[in-house]
Specification:
The complex is a heterodimer. Chain A is mainly α. Helix content of chain A is 41%, strand content 8%. The radius of gyration of chain A is 24 Å and the shape is elongated. The chains are: A mainly alpha, B alpha+beta.
Amino acid sequence: MTAPEEQEPESAQLVRPYVITNGRGRLDNDQFNLITLVTASDQVRPGHLDPEKRRLLDLCAGGYLSVAEIAGHMGLPIGIVKILLSDLSADGYLLTRAPAPPAQLVDVSLLQEVLDGLQARFG
Amino acid sequence: MTQYIQDPAFWALIAGTPLAATAIFRGRKTQAKLRSEKAEAENRYTDLENQYSAAVQEAQVRAEEATKSALKSAMRTLQGLANEQQLAISKLQDRYGEHHILQDLLEIDHMNSQFGRRAQSIAVLCDGWLGRQRAVASVYDVVRSAKGRIRHYTRVEIRSQSNFALTSRAVEPVALALAELLDNATSYSAPDSPIDITIRTVPKGVCIIIDDAGVGMNEEEKNRADQLLSAQRATGVTGLGNPPQFGFAVIGVLAARYGFNVSVDSASPYGGVRAVVLLPEDLLTNMPEPEEQPVSRTPAAAVPEEPGSTAGGLPKRRRKGSISIVPQADTTAPVRSSEETASIMGAFQRGTQSGRSANPNREGHDPQ
């Protein structure tokens, strides 16, 4: 029915992203950001996992990967990848590690009080 | 006798007989003529009638063809636009994957898919362009693609997966046929009831079973569906009824053209309709290998077939590495005849005997 010259040069994915997440586009409590690190846990995978989730676990099996890297490899929008990640980590197939927190600075007022105390004592 | 001769009536009778004979003869002749004329007229009438109905049919066919070609080109444009739009939406989804807008983009994507499917269905009825040529895809992905093309897709639950894939030419027609079935299933059942899809491997191929919890179909509806699905009746666009019902007509055309089988004559466990799509083996293929997979190990197993020497005549060293440890079936079972085996065993025995005989503590050829 379709002559070869009629074919479109480019075609979108067969399975659309909204089908993969069953309509969910955003997480209510977003525990992931672009640099959250995730890795696959030792938990045995079930047989009926979606192909995208299986591929994601395969990607993460080698060690910690950031969310941004995973989205790049999967070729899916980041929001969709985050939903898959949160499903998988809720079921215990993934371990997440928050990125190293920025150095905690001590409260300025406390420093001021110490300084004041020192000055009162010695100054 | 003489009295008769004198009787004028006798003479009148004599004169009248040939006249009467002529009259009767003439009458017969006219009757025959009339009869033949009547037959001729009848023939002409049937000819005219045939010509008339042929003309009407021709006009109908021509009208159908004209409608088809007009719709076909219109749908071709719409399908092209839907595809372009889908690509644009994909790009936006990638760019704004982290924003709130993603949810809206997903909804637009969903609407666009439905729009594309509607155009595709009409195109199928007009013998038009089915759409993009797809790569080989797993049955599961084709089912999911179909799921994404209907309005209430979240009600559709896919219960099983399959290790089979569809050949590239079958991906789009099967996805479209499934989408039409799912559309029927969701339209004729309660708004919150689930639609179950089961994929089952059977000796003849792969079955995709769609169960809904709707009201089912009565006998008349079943007959109509059967007729349309078995493509006994070429509906075209003019015979879809009012309001037009595309579903079964589209599925029937696709099934006939691509050689798969669809039946809707059984009831689902939930009391609704059970639709079964049977995909025969020639539409199926093995699952495509994922792209990241390194070159498979089969070429390594074929290494022993390499030429045994270099161009200079030296023995060629074979690369060792990923050759499997488990010996291959055809190398463990070499093509040795029983004579060869016997001669090898004999050589082995002679060797052990000569080894023993070479033992200095023993003498002669006594084996023990």
